[in-house]
What we know:
The protein has 669 residues and is an alpha/beta fold. Strands 3-2-1-4-5-6 form a 6-stranded parallel β-sheet, sandwiched between helices. It has a 5-stranded antiparallel β-sheet with strand order 7-8-11-9-10. The protein has 3 domains: 5-388, Up-down Bundle (Na+/H+ antiporter like fold); 405-523, NAD(P)-binding Rossmann-like Domain (Rossmann fold), CATH 3.40.50.720; 530-660, Regulator of K+ conductance, C-terminal domain (Alpha-Beta Plaits). A hairpin with a 2-residue loop joins strand 9 (617-623) and strand 10 (626-629). Helix 6 (113-124) packs antiparallel against helix 18. Helices cover 63% and strands 8% of the residues. The two termini are 55 Å apart.
Amino acid sequence: MSQYPVLKDLAIIFAVSLLVILLFHRIKLPALPGFIVAGVLLGPNALGLISDAHQVESLAEVGVILLLFTIGIEFSLSRLREMGRQVVTGGGAQVGLTVTLGAGLAMALHVNWRVSLLLGCLVALSSTAIVLKGLTDKGEIDAPHGRLATGVLIFQDLCVVPMMLILPFLAGRSGGGAGALLLALGKAVLVVIGVLVLARTVVPRALAEILKTRSRELFLIAVILIGTLTALGTAAAGASLALGAFLAGLVISESDYGHQAMAELLPFRDVFISLFFVAVGMLVQVEFLRDHPALALAGVVGVMGGKALLAAGGPLLLGYSGRVALLAGLAVSQIGEFSFVLAREGRGTGLLSENLYQTFLAVAVLTMLVTPFLLQGGPALLDRLERLVPLDRLLPGLRPGAIAAADQPLTDHVIVAGYGLNGRNLAAALRSIQAPYLIVELNAQTVHQARARGEPAFYGDATREEILRALGAERARMLVVAISDPAATRRMVRVGRSLNAGIHIIARTRYVTEIPELSRLGADVVIPEEFETSIEIFARVLAHYSVPRPDIQRLVEQIRSSHYEALRGGDGVGGLSLGAVAGIPQMAVERLRLAPDSPLVGQTLAATGLRTQTGALVLAVGRGGDEIATPGPQFRLAADDVLVVVGQPPQLRAAALLVTGKSAANAPQ
Length: 669
């Protein structure tokens, strides 16, 4: 094996990473910090199992470029416009305040101003990968604090480029002073303009011609070539490969082929970015952590506490409540993956001493490891803090004042909590039947816009008893919770029920698993979005078979009254008969589990041919603790997935045969 050192190192890395990630999965932690832990174990400062760490670092650099490339693909000008205020105000305030205060504190400790500015930039960046993964897993990506955190992360990703550009000037390796810096920035602007012109003209036509060949391999090679040439072009212009990678992704995103390019690149990106995190872990000196535990812990507390408070500044300027602002701040309080790139460059240029570099690595790695716990326990932590001091009084922000109870004389009205799409539709329906209603919303800008349209909208946090009391919850007929924050939804239901035992509470949730808890807290009706779409498809399938509408309605009510049990995954393979129906007396729903050796594992639903070969229809897929309703044709199946399938018995038998790998060709259709 001595003639294949790199291959041997990769085998060791993936083997150890596999074991660590499995352990992290068992204890409900995300994978990315697990790769860092694996790197710490593998590195020369711990077990020393890797013979050539520099080779691994070279491969890891490919991961960074691919990460920037895919961020560019995901980024679009339309997305920036949609989240403009969150990105510019929230992100700008967080980065500006963190860089300024971080550099100021370092200078107060007699650190050189150039090094201090670099340290401020290192601390300002957060981990896009860890935060977005955590928010998505918790179903909070569309919650107010989730949208704010996403806006901050987008701004930070854009700031990586200018930070990389100023590094040589901070290190004193680029002559000319401010004039040379402006010249370099001017070159970068010209490169950006050139790339945008190519994105609108040459690239779409070239990709369209390549796609005519119907060759996935040729398309993948073309995408990689675009990324490589753009990155090399920016490097030749005096900018960085990182800037080129991001711009190359932007080129692809502005074409019609961004989604396909992302799908092709994701496996490569995930593998190489995993190597990057392993390489970061290998840089950590275990002896340093052992000899300076107090310094490392103090750094973690200082960085995460300071960043959380500073990051709350932008949301407060936007008019959000103290609770939402702090939740967003906690989400982005860690040090990010691009900080490692900047730190490594700073070390290479001599800006960071070895001791300072090791201190940064120890603090950064620990903040990333703490983040999953902070995302999970953040709401409970703020609940305890709010018992000591009201957050709205501690962090008042720029938002409308409290609702005065005397100004709300309505009785027998509807309180609509949340003025998103569902809230707006409900308000329109209530207005059409002239039913009295009040809207309560946490986004001050949304409240102003609603009032401008004549809506009875008020700013307030409906999880607080005084807000619901001011809205007349004791006199209201109904409370409708139409927000995307699971934790806030539970609190609103509990507080609403405590104020009025007779109020009818309807709660919206994204997940069926929330139904029992919301019902226990006092909700009369819980509407899970993930299966309501499945019910609509199911009803249309029955209507296509000419089933009478009363029978369809009976089956729909049966599913709803059983808390969607017929559509929920469970252990083993089983089915729930939906009873005799005129026209199709044997229609039923079954749950089919994919064994690890099933030929369908790893395939998309379209590629399995389950619908075309058997006639059965997949309504939902259960995966772990999640339920994916109405998966699309490109949804990729995995081992232990539970398919919720509807059809007639012959079709279900054929589907079961296909799932187990037996031929379904001879099964009755």
